[in-house]
Structures are given as C-alpha cells and as structure tokens.
Write a structure and sequence with these properties.
Elements lengths: L1 E7 L17 E2 L2 E2 H12 L3 E7 L4 H9 L7 E5 L4 H9 L6 E7 L7 H14 L1 E7 L4 E5 L2 E5 L5 E3 L3 E4 H7 L11 H6 L7 E3 L10 H16 L1
Helix pairs in contact: 1-4
Length: about 220
C-alpha cells in the first residue's frame, strides 16, 4: 500500500512575535520545516510527501525542498483558511488507496522511529494517533465553578496522525465544524474509533519563542549523541 505524508504548515507566527512564519524560522541553521521534512524522508524510502503552505509562501517552500535529498518525492500545494481546508486541499494530491500521515509542519523534532511506530499501529488497528499523558494537575471549569479531573485520563494529542486514505478522504467530505481541531476529531465524528498510542515527550509543536530554544537544545543533544 502506498504511503503519503501531508505536512501542514499554514501558520503565520503570531504567537512567535515575528513577521516570519514559524515554519521558516531557523533552527540550527536550517528552517524548522527542513527538519520536519527530513524526518519523514528518512523514515521510509517509498513515502511521498505533500507540503501544504500558505499561498503567499509557496516559493519559500520550493526553495527549502530544493535543498533536501530526493526533492522529487515532495509536492507542494496551497492551504486554506482553516486546518480542515488545508488538509482537504492536500488530500487532492493523494492517489490510490494508501496510508496517509498528517503532521504539523512545526513539530520538527518528530523522529523517524515515531513515524514508523505510527505506521505499524495504523496498519494493525486502522488508524493511529500519538499522545502523551499530562504531568500537570488539571482542573475544568463548568457553570462558573472548577473541579479537579484525573490527569491519567487526559491525553495530550500529537502528530503524525495516521489513517487509511479511504476513511480520511470520506471524513473530509463533511461540512466544517468548529470542533475540528485535528484529523482525529474529523474522523472520529464519522463514528470511527480513534486509536491512541504512545507519543514522544520531545515531539513538541513550535509555537512560542521558548519552544524554539528547547528545540535548539534537543537537536544539539541528538547531534552530540
């Protein structure tokens, strides 16, 4: 079965307090997005990538792709106003029945090992969504009050989220709903069970300046090892 990875990188970088979208910021001398794409190219020799970017930054994306090994394995397309629409646009480039990864472009610390584990779990169970348990105490607000909830029942969702193309494409035929914050929420609304699996603590999403500093440190340690 063919493999596709949709790398969704449509952010504008508002919370980074920079005019440069966070996926293009430099991390150890390379754009954040370069590290993400490299991890997926390394994971599987037969994996095809679809990079989804804002329409105004397609040329920047092409320049990053040109500096990667096997750039012919990566296609690029414009995203939409929402993540839902961006993924839907990317799915138009997925051919035949396949296994589809959907990944946040700014989760640049994802490892080939996690990508492979997600793939195997999806083959075994139909889909796979990596997650970690919360290490913090949690409270939820309801009716003006707040109460403690069991943190062992709270899962912090990551990507890549992996699905069979037949189910993913069909799920994205639904009308957009504000509750669609990731692909699991879209597929789950069709009634399909979402299968959680163990993610990686370092698989963080670059959102704020401190995340970039953490990523620098983690990559430096990996290179040193």
């Amino acid at each position: 079965m063919k493999k596709y990875a949709l790398i969704v990188a449509g952010g504008t970088g508002l919370r980074m307090n920079t005019t440069v979208p966070k996926q293009f910021l430099l991390l150890r001398g390379r754009p954040v997005l370069w590290h993400t794409l490299t991890a997926f190219l390394t994971a599987f020799d037969d994996l095809q990538l679809v990079l989804v970017l804002p329409a105004t930054h397609l040329e920047t994306g092409q320049s990053i792709i040109a500096n990667l090994p096997e750039p012919q394995r990566i296609r690029i397309t414009a995203g939409g106003e929402t993540r839902f629409q961006s993924v839907k646009n990317g799915l138009k480039l997925v051919e035949n029945e396949s296994v589809v990864f959907v990944h946040d472009g700014v989760r640049c610390l994802v490892t080939p090992a996690l990508i492979k584990r997600c793939y195997e779990a999806a083959l075994a169970k139909g889909n796979a969504v990596p997650a970690t348990l919360s290490v913090d105490s949690l409270r939820i607000e309801t009716g003006g009050q707040n109460m403690i909830i069991d943190r062992n029942q709270v899962h912090i969702i990551q990507t890549p989220q992996v699905f069979l193309s037949t189910e993913l494409v069909k799920a994205f035929e639904q009308e957009y709903d504000i509750c669609f914050t990731d692909e699991a929420s879209v597929v789950g609304k069709t009634g399909i069970k979402i299968n959680l699996m163990e993610g990686e603590e370092n698989n963080i999403k670059i959102t704020r300046p401190m995340d970039l500093l953490m990523a620098e440190k983690i990559l430096a340690e990996r290179e040193g090892a």
